[in-house]
Amino acid sequence: xxxxxxxxxxALGFAGIASPALAAQPPAGAQxxxxxxxVRHIKDEPASLDPLKxxxxxxxxxxxxxxxxxxxxxxxxxxxxxxAESWSSSDxxxxxxxxxxNAKWSNGEPVTAHDFVYSWQRLVAxxxxxxxxxxxxxxxxxxxxxxxxGEMPPSQLGVSxxxxxxxxxxxDRPVPWFPSLVANxxxxxxxxxxxxxxxxxxxxxxxxxxxxAYQLQDRVVNEKxxxxxNPHYWDDAHSVLTKVTFIPLNExxxxxxxxxxxxxxxxxxxxxxxxxxxxxxxxxxxxxxxQLGTYYxxxxxxxxxxxxxxxxxxxxxSIDRRIIAEKVLGTGEKPAWRFTPDVTAGFKPxxxxxxxxxxxxLNIQAKALLTAAGYGPNRPLHLTLLYNTSESHxxxxxxxxxxxxxxxxxxxxxQNQEWKTYIDSRNSGNFDVxxxxxxxxxxxxSTFLSLLxxxxxxxxxxxxxxxxxxxxxxxxxxVQPEARNNDYQxxxxxxxxxxxxAPIYQYTNGRLIxxxxxxxxxxxxxxxxxxxxxxxxxx
Length: 539
Prior knowledge:
By secondary structure, the protein is α+β, with helices and mostly antiparallel strands. The protein has helices at residues 4-11, 57-66, 113-124, 134-138, 144-148, 178-181, 192-198, 252-260, 275-281, 309-317, 321-329, 353-356, 359-372, 391-408, 419-428, 446-449, 466-477, 481-498, and strands at residues 37-42, 71-73, 79-81, 84-88, 94-99, 159-163, 166-170, 214-220, 224-229, 243-248, 286-287, 290-299, 334-335, 382-388, 411-417, 433-439, 501-508, 511-512, 517-518, 535-536.
């Protein structure tokens, strides 16, 4: 779905996809700084550097530098070769990937097809409880769903190594965009012998072995993660940066302050209320392109007041999304009238009920729904709204709580938690309403809509609806884009009717980038930015 040219070749079963140099190249005559080191901001301390244990963007940004999958993305989001130099399929169900002969681990050992077999089986093994185990089934890899449920052994996964350089993947249905899925962190390889020898401590500095352009040099929890060039990386000759430091800061104002002081070269975000000021004081350094992501609130559908769909709908309808997008944020975000963002490739949304009615009309209907559910002045609705620590999350939570109080008479307790505690609460279902977001793993509507299927481990709301599961399953088998889009519309309608989540706004990729940092792919809707693509100009 990322590249029309590649997609056509793949669908027709053409092999021998060209293998261009992947790193962005400094233009001829560019004056490079003598010191090629960069400091990148991430929003939280990563929960783990093991691809198996990644839960969100804080991990993924770092893991993309330490490891590499079969394919990568270019600056516009098109799929390009990674560890695989080419791939082919005659039916979009059986895929053969040819690995590079010069792909190596950071210890100098070759990366082989057997490494991918081990890593993908490790991903779906129930004993490992990977947060991304569901991704293998979503990708259509044969037997993945049954294995994650414990009904079959991991050895039955539809992946095999013909020899060291050829990986065969068997799917349970045609997936024309499968090469775009293997660029996902969940399907990155890990070194079997190192994992076996070091156990859970294998990702520590001095022990972690990866196959990405950089290797782990140092890590101080809640302070920094330092990466150095991996000389064994197959395309190391085209990398420019010699050192990458990730700084975890969940306070956007702190990150912006350190950026302005020269301590950080790229921020992951900035305080929304500083947008106008930053545009004036830092011209040419403020970027807000559209991003393939949706910010939403997930409701606990299994217990408490939010187990009632009428309550969930009342809460969702009484959120003034225009106010959130334009006033609370105001950096180009758009109201989210549905879960799937407008920028999603091939997705043609219909007009939703929310955008067809004024906020005043929605508020009236929301109050009637809450009354029908048994709540009112004599029995006010009491809720806890949980979010992970961040100024933006806090401002949105305050605004939404105010809307719920004014429009519904609801008493809302705001609760913020640090990332790891928040993840624990999320995983255990210890919440009424919780802040969440999803940035697409690939550019196709199923990356969003599959999230709410019953067996998805990232289904935060624990939503379970047979009709929804059926329509998503049918969409996954559709070969014709129009028929598949119709299924996606039906899925969105079920979300609108049952309201397991309340989509709030569509992301922009707001960040600050120093003028001497070059190569950042601001045109990539998934915000996939490999450090090997960047360089520092003389300044």
